[in-house]
C-alpha cells in the first residue's frame, strides 16, 4: 500500500472522528467517541506496545501503559489502523519498535504517523523552523515538532527519516537525553513519562457502559456488577475512591 493511500485512510478517519485535516489531535480522548470500543491500559512489558481485538459485537484496544505518553498516543493510532482497515486479522499484537515487523505492521505505523502528523501540517511546521530550505533540523527543532504533535521521540525521528529530513546518523544522535532536551526548552516532561503507577491498570469505554446498563436493567446483581468492574481494574467505581483534594468546579 503506497503512502498516498495510507494518508487517505488517515484523513478519512480524522473526518469520521470530527477532526480537520491538519490540526494536532488528542487521540486518547477521541477514541472514547468510537462506538462499542473498550479501551484497556495495562503494563505489557518492554516488547509489546498494544493489542487490537476485533469481535462480532464489540472491539478492544489495549495499550501498554508502562510506555511513555507520547508512545501510547502513537500506539493508539497504530491500533486504529488494525481496527478500521486491517481485514486480515481479528487480533493484532504490535511490537514496541516503530517501522519493524511484517508489511501490515509497517503500514499501521505509517498510518499512525499520518494520523497524528498530517503531511501538510508537518511540512508547514518544518518550513517555519528552518531558516532556509537547505538548513538542517536541530535537536531543538525536533523537540518543538514532537511537542506540537504530542508524539514520542521515536515517532518523530521515524517520520523525519522517512521524509529525508534527517540522516540515520543525525537521528541516532538525537535519541539520547530526550527528557533533558525538552526541559531545556521550557517544556514539562509529561510526554516522556509513562502513566503513573496507580493508574496503569484501567478499563474505559464500552465494557464499563455495558456493565452499568446490565445493572440498571436488573440483568446482574450489584455483587456481579462489582465483580465485573474489579476485573476491569475499576476499584475506583466500586469503592467510590475520591480523587485526592476533592472535586473542583471551574
Characterise this structure.
This protein folds into two domains: 196 residues, no CATH class; 39 residues, no CATH class. Helix 3 packs across helix 4, helix 6 crosses helix 7 and helix 10 packs antiparallel against helix 11. Strand 2 and strand 3 form a beta hairpin. A five-stranded mixed beta sheet has the order 4-2-3-1-5. The chain has twelve helices and five strands. With 250 residues, the protein is of the alpha+beta class.
What gross morphology would you assign? globular
Mean pLDDT across all amino acids: 93
User: What is the N-to-C succession of helices and strands?
Assistant: HHEEEHEHHHHHHEHHH
Number of strands: 5
The Rg value, from CA coordinates, equals 20 Å
- Structural domain tally: 2
**Biggest sheet details:** 5 strands, mixed
Protein structure class: alpha+beta
Amino-to-carboxy terminus distance: 48 Å
By DSSP (H or I, 4+ residues per run), the number of helices equals 12
**What is the helix content?**
40-55%
Percentage beta strand: 5-15%
Strand ordering within the main sheet: 4-2-3-1-5
Low-confidence stretches: none
Amino acid at each position: 500500500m503506497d503512502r498516498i493511500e495510507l494518508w487517505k485512510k488517515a484523513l478519512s478517519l480524522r473526518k469520521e472522528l470530527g477532526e480537520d485535516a491538519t490540526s494536532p489531535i488528542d487521540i486518547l480522548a477521541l477514541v472514547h467517541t468510537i462506538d462499542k470500543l473498550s479501551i484497556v491500559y495495562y503494563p505489557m512489558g518492554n516488547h509489546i506496545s498494544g493489542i487490537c481485538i476485533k469481535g462480532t459485537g464489540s472491539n478492544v484496544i489495549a495499550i501498554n501503559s508502562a510506555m511513555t505518553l507520547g508512545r501510547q498516543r502513537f500506539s493508539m493510532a497504530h491500533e486504529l489502523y488494525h481496527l478500521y482497515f486491517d481485514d486480515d486479522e481479528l487480533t493484532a499484537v504490535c511490537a514496541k519498535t516503530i517501522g519493524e515487523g511484517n508489511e501490515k505492521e509497517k503500514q499501521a505505523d505509517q498510518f499512525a504517523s499520518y494520523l497524528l502528523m498530517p503531511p501538510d501540517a508537518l511540512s508547514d511546521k518544518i518550513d517555519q523552523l528552518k531558516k532556509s530550505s537547505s538548513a538542517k533540523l536541530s535537536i531543538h527543532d525536533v523537540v518543538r515538532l514532537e511537542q506540537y504533535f504530542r508524539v514520542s521521540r521515536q515517532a518523530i525521528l521515524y517520520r523525519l527519516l522517512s521524509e529525508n529530513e534527517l540522516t540515520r546518523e543525525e537521528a541516532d544522535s538525537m535519541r539520547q537525553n530526550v527528557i533533558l532536551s525538552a526541559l531545556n526548552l521550557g517544556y514539562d516532561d509529561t510526554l516522556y513519562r509513562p502513566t503513573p503507577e496507580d493508574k496503569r491498570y484501567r478499563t474505559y469505554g464500552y465494557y464499563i457502559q455495558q456493565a452499568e446498563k446490565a445493572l440498571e436493567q436488573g440483568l446482574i446483581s450489584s455483587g456481579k456488577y462489582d465483580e465485573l468492574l474489579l476485573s476491569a481494574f475499576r476499584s475506583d467505581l466500586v469503592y467510590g475512591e475520591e480523587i485526592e483534594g476533592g472535586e473542583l468546579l471551574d
